[in-house]
Amino acid sequence: MISFAVHIPATELAPEPLDPSQIVSGTPEVTGKVLSESPDGRQLRGIWQITPGVVTDVEADEMFVVLSGRATIEIEGGPTLKVGPGDCAVLREGDRTTWTVHETLRKAYAITLPG
Question: 108 vs 9, 22, 29, 32, 78, CA distance in Å?
């Protein structure tokens, strides 16, 4: 892997269709781009975007920074996170979440997948 820089707001993203069972309400659409991946495939760094709506997920070990947009992330048995531009959040592997996306949210992330 080589060192690099990208301008996140202008980076083109590809569709990443949601499983219909994850959609609680609205018609959210997800796009993303993996910028780097470790040789073993466990470390991912990239950009992810979701349009308004409500979706559920089971999280990986992730740290992300919100570049634009706003969302409320309810963690089952845990806190409710309100995130917007400039916010950094950490999600634990296995967290069951409900994302209420108020404004199209774009984030830069680093994920560690289980080994």
Answer: 10, 21, 17, 10, 23
Question: Is the CB of residue 49 less than 8 Å from the CB of residue 30?
Answer: yes
With vertex at residue 13, the alpha carbon angle to CA 113 and CA 63, rounded to the nearest 5 degrees, is: 35
| Average pLDDT per 10 consecutive residues for the chain, totaling 115 residues | 90 97 98 96 97 97 98 98 98 97 98 90
Written as six digits, the tokens of 31 are 């796009």
Helix (H), strand (E) at residue 111: strand 96-112
Whether residue 37 contacts residue 44, with contact meaning beta carbons closer than 8 Å, is answered with yes
What global pTM score does this model have?
0.94
